[in-house]
Design goal:
The protein has 139 residues and is an alpha/beta fold. The chain folds into two domains: 28 residues; 70 residues, Nucleotidyltransferase, domain 5. It has a five-stranded mixed beta sheet. Strand 2 and strand 3 form a beta hairpin. The longest helix has 25 residues. The model has no long low-confidence stretch (mean pLDDT 77).
Length: 139
Amino acid sequence: MSRIKRSSVASTLSLTPLIDVVFLLLIFFLVTSEFEEEERRLDIVLPTATSAVPMTSKPREMVIDIDTQGELYLSGKATDLAELQILLESAVSNNPTNQTVVIRADRATAFQPVVSVMDVCNRTGVTDYSVTTKEGPES
């Protein structure tokens, strides 16, 4: 009678950690599926409204242009810093986490209007703002 030799790797392999992991995964999926069913257990007919709108409006990128004289334009309309602050505050209240602003300044303009617009962005809570540049030849 010949004996079959077991490999040394198979004899040292422990299945206990593998079984523990499988049981933990099984418990996890059982618990999460139970919570999913709990939400759908009640048959509720939701009311309808003709003027229903989402809690926050769709995020839209705001573009602020600054010409050579330092005049501000929001979406093509002339504005000043006080009005810009009011408009940005209302935009941030609609989209508190993801309101973006793009500042486009003429290269001949002074730096102060750009800094003033960036300051208004910081005061109103806009954290995602950028100043655009045009790609050109390296000098």
